[in-house]
Structures are given as structure tokens and as C-alpha cells.
Amino acid sequence: MRRKTLLYGLLCVLCVPFVFPTWWMATSSLKPVSEVFAFPPSLWPGRPTLEAYQQVFELQPFAQQYWNSLYIAVAVTLGTLAVSALAGYAFARIRFRGSNVLFVIVLTGLLIPSEVTIVPLFQLFHGWGLTDTHWPLILVPVVGAPSVLATFIMRQFFLVLPRELEEAAAVDGLGRFATFRRIGLPLARPALGAVAIFTFLHSWNLYLEPIVFLSSPEKFTLPQALTQFVDAYGGPMWNVQLAAASMTALPVLVVFVLAQKQFVEGLAHTGLKG
Amino acid sequence: MTVQSQSQSQSLARTARHTGRAGWWTTRRRDHLLGYLFIAPQLAGSLLFVFLPLALVFYYSLNEWNVLADTFSFVGAENYQQLLSDPNVPSVLMATGFFSIGLVVFNLSLALLLAVLLNQRLRGTTVFRTLFFSPVVVSLVAWTIVWGFLLQKNGGINAILQVFGIEGPNWLRTGTWAMVSVIVVQVFKNVGLNMVLFLAALQGVPRELFEAARLDGASAWTQFRRITLPMISPTVLLTSIITVAGSLQVFAQIAVLTQGGPGTSTTVLVYYLYQQAFQFHHFGYGATLSVLLFVIVLALTLLQWRMRRRWVFHEA
How does DSSP assign A34-56, residue by residue? Predict the structure, then answer.
């Protein structure tokens, strides 16, 4: 009994640095500027106001930036699912000349952090006239290094799928592509879910690439936009930054709490399979 | 499915594939073509966005490239000589190493502690697991901004410390504390991921082992060191590789929290690379720093891979 109380106590204390920042972010964003730095700090806004939330939209094209982040993340997720499912299936299930060598070549991409190639990537996209567009933020994750991990996960999954299912489909006269689409893909739903979750989060969090590739505020993505709420002296406008940060963090957090099993298992899955 | 019907369906499948498509257009050829078609987007993307830029990085590092003056000229090893004589490079490497080591040690031990606590037979562990994991899904820059807010001189952390009568430092503007702060912020952000991996590994350890050890009178610590750790060592290797690789790529946290300061105390390699290439427009030197980053990542990955035999216990 004493051991249990001790354990619960320990867990509660350890929880604080994980939960407190998000709580502080959400509550402070509702405080008027004068109250943000009040001492002693209040855990709940004394006079809640939505002033900061209003300012977020006045100071920057925040709705546009929100949309940018959202549609880029969705496009990247759908694109990655298509590319990695096709490639993963082929590497696992179709016998073709050089497949092992090609797989190793593609897999080597995992060894190369995107930060290593950011300078030449910038030059390439600059040469194609695609800087300050969203193309680099979509194309590179979908077919470049980030999707290699997705392809690897999909391949591992298709490898353990029972062969008889496909053979039965072939007996029924289904072609390769139809077998992939009608048998393989529906069965791969858990792996697709895992890939979708980590791809979406990855794109939603991207920071280095947007600040390298984008220069006009109406093209910015959320992480980049968050740091732009500064006053005339370059100091951060805290309540506005926290309001914008809340709007960026809370939707994903809410989805996570509702579907936490899928999230945790999905992400654990992808790690374990590596 | 019985063995017989299985082999039957296999041979049926084979005949089904071979009949009806006669001559040159065989199943084998069709499979070859389809295989290439299926992997084409991934392969083309890897060549265009991974291997071509990697080759270009080496090429650029041998050139002086000033975008503002629009000059591009071959300078041979000059950038590498600059790398060796750059007074910032030793401190940048020190900061990078300090960050990686601090992150890995703190991250793995905290993740393991949380996993062991949550692995006890206790009600409500799912709730705690959700809470510890939740920062993983909070957007990185949002998380970093809140911590930046909390860690100011007159921020929330110091306000709490003041309640206990402690005068806290200006966390992000004091040499050593700035680095410690960046590490701590990063650990709380992502430790949930490693915790989940450890938890999955712990659940795979057979309980009989602990019961046998308890009969032999082994203490909890001995059980942990002699049973738990060896049994989950493959996961320890995996998480440490992931964490080290991630630690070398840290950028947003530095850019938002400290901008590499105070001085260069939190200027890690990727941040320095970004400054040189995209703030000072020294693309040639930026490429040289990229080569350095690549070499370090490669060396560390190979090292960890070779060391796996030493400390990873495999159940034979």
C-alpha cells in the first residue's frame, strides 16, 4: 500500500514538466499583457480575454499560414503514403532484377540527414525558380529522404503478409496492381496509419526548410510564423506568441488524446520495426 | 488452410499466371516492369533529392560561392583550410558533443525510469503514459516558445523558484545554463517516444526470470541490472542510435531559444552551418560544414553498429 502511494506520488511529480508547459501556454494566452508576468504567477487567468487571439490574425496573415501548414502536411502525408506503399510493396513482394541492390541504395538515404543536403537543395530549387514556393516543402519529403523510412516500414509490413492471399487473388484473375490495391493496401492499414501519423507530425513541425525556402509572410508555415510576433524592438510579444502557439499545438493534442492508442502504438511500431 | 490445398492453390496460381499470356509478354517480364514502375518515384526522388545534393555538397565545398556578388570559383581545399583555422569550429564541435551526450544520457535514463514505473501493476498507467507522451505531438516550435517564455529572467520557472526563496539565473543568457536548458527542453519534448519503445521492450521480458531471481534473493537493483537491462539491450541500442542521430540535427530549438548564444555556447553544427550559408551567404563554406556533419553522422552510425556486439545481449 505504501509502495503504491509512493509510486503515484513519484509519477505525479514527474508529470509536471510534461503537462505544465502546455497548461501555462494555454492559460497565459488568455491573460491580458499586464497579467502575463504577474507575481506570484496565477495558474488561471484572473480576467480572461481573447485579445491576444485577435492580434494574432491582425499582425500576420495567420489564417493563410495555418492553411499553408495544413494543406502541405496533408499533401505530404498522402504523397508519402502512395510513394512508400508502392515502393515498399515492390521491394517486399515483386521479384525483379536488381531489387536488392536498389533497396540498399534507397535505404542509404536514411544515413544522410536532410541538414547535410540543405545547401545544394536550396541551389537546385533556386535554379528551377521554385524558391519562395511550397514545392520544396512537398516534393522533398514525398520522394526524398523522409519517405525512405516510410518505404522501409511498408516493406517490413508487406514481407510478413501471408502469400496465400495474393495467390488466391491471382487465381481469381486479379493482376499485380489490382492485387496490390484490393488485397495488399487494405491489409496494410495499421502500417499506413503509423506512416501517416509520423509523416503528418514531421511536416507540421518542419522549421529549417521553411525558413530556408520561404521569404514572403503569406507563404510561411506555422512554426515559422510563430516566431514572427515581435514588437518594434524585436522583443517577443509573449501573449500573442502563446496564443498562436496554442492554436498550433492544441488541435493535434486534442486529436492525440482522442486517438492516443493509435498514436502511441503507431509511433512505437515504426521505431520497433527499425 | 491445409498443406495440400495450399500447394494446390500455389500451382493453380502459377498456371493462371502463365496461361492466357503467351509469348514475349510473360509474367516474369511483366513483374520486372511493374517492380521498376512501383519503385520509380522513390528511386527517382532518392537520386534527385538525396544523392545528387550529396554529390553537389562535396563539389560546392571545393568552391568559393558568393551569391550576393554572384561569383563562383574553384578554390580547391581552401574551405577545408578555413575549417581547420576557424576559431569557432572547436567550440561548435564542443557544443554539439555536449548537447548530444547530455541529451542521450538524460533522455535514455529518464525514458527508462518512466518505462519501469509505468510497467508496474498499477491502475491508471495509461493516463500517465498519455501525459508523458503528449509533448511528442505538441508542435516543436510551440513547445520551444513556451519554454523560452518560462525560462526568462522574470519567467515562470524563476517565479516558482522564488516561492521557495531561490533566486534563479537568467537561464538562456548564462553560458552553461543555456546549454542545459536547451537539453532539458528537448528531453521533455521527445522522451515519451523512447519511453514507449522501452515499455514495449519491458513487456517482452518473461516474468519467470524475475520470479526465479527473487527466489534466489536478488534485490530490485540487481534484478534490473542483471535481467532487465540485458534483456532490453537491443532496444537501448536502437533508441540510442535514433537519439544520437536526432541530437546532431537539432536546429529549431536553438534558433528559437538561444540563437546559438550566449557567445557561441549553444551554437551546434547545424545552426552554425545555417548561419554561414543562409545568413552570411558563404555557401561554399556552408557546404564544407555540411561535409563535416555528414562525416560525423556516418562515423557515429558505423561506430554504434560495430559496438552492438559488445553490449547487445541476444537471446540465443
Answer: HHHT-SSPPSS-SS---HHHHHH
A40 preceded by a cis bond (ω within 30 of 0): yes
**Would you call A112 and B50 a contact, using CB atoms and an 8 Å cutoff?**
yes
Q: How far apart are CA B207 and CA B111, in angstroms?
A: 21
Q: Is the dihedral of CA B106, B112, B115, B119 positive or negative?
A: negative
Q: At A153, list the grid cell.
A: 516500414
Please report which residue ranges of chain B form alpha helices under DSSP H: 3-18, 27-46, 52-60, 78-85, 88-118, 125-133, 140-150, 156-163, 175-203, 207-215, 220-223, 229-231, 233-248, 252-257, 269-274, 283-311
Tens-level pLDDT at each residue, chain A (274 residues): 788 889 899 999 999 999 999 999 999 999 888 887 776 777 788 888 898 999 999 999 999 999 999 999 999 999 999 999 999 999 998 888 889 999 999 998 888 888 999 999 999 999 999 999 999 999 999 999 889 999 998 998 898 888 887 778 878 888 778 888 888 888 888 889 889 988 999 999 999 999 999 999 999 999 999 999 988 887 888 989 999 999 999 999 998 888 877 777 776 665 443 3
For residues B38 and B33, give the distance between their C-alpha atoms in angstroms, rounded to a whole number: 9
Model confidence at B128, pLDDT cuts 50, 70, 90, reads very high
Q: How far apart (Å, rounded) are the C-alpha atoms in residues A121 and A73?
A: 20
ipTM value, please give it: 0.90
Question: Which of B187, B223, B177, B201 lies closest to B110 in space, CA to CA?
Answer: B187
Find where cell 516550435 sits.
B141
DSSP labels for B92-156? Answer: HHHHHHHHHHHHHHHHHHHHHHHHHHHTSS-TTHHHHHHHHHGGGGS-HHHHHHHHHHHTSTTSH
CB-CB contact of B228 with B205 (8 Å): yes
Contact A151, B53 (CB under 8 A): no
Task: Say whether pTM exceeds 0.80.
Answer: yes
Contact list, B290 vs chain A (CB under 8 Å): 115-119
Helix (H) or strand (E) holding B66: strand B63-66
Model confidence over A96-140: pLDDT tens digits?
888 999 999 999 888 888 899 999 999 999 999 999 999 999 999
> Per the CB < 8 Å rule, is A168 touching B9?
yes
Scan for cell 548561419, then name that residue: B275
Any idea which residue has 561506430 for its cell? Answer: B303
**CB-CB: which of A39, A151, A242 is closest to B42?**
A151
Which residue in the set B30, B139, B297 is minimally distant from A113, CB to CB? B297
Identify residue A19 by its one-letter amino acid code.
V
Query: Per the structure block, which three cell numbers stand in for B115?
Result: 518505462
For chain A, first and last CA: distance in Å? 40
Partners of residue A173 in chain B, C-beta under 8 Å: 16
Task: With beta carbons less than 8 A apart as the criterion, state whether A206 and A221 touch.
Answer: yes
Answer whether B270 sits within 8 Å of A208, measured CB to CB. yes
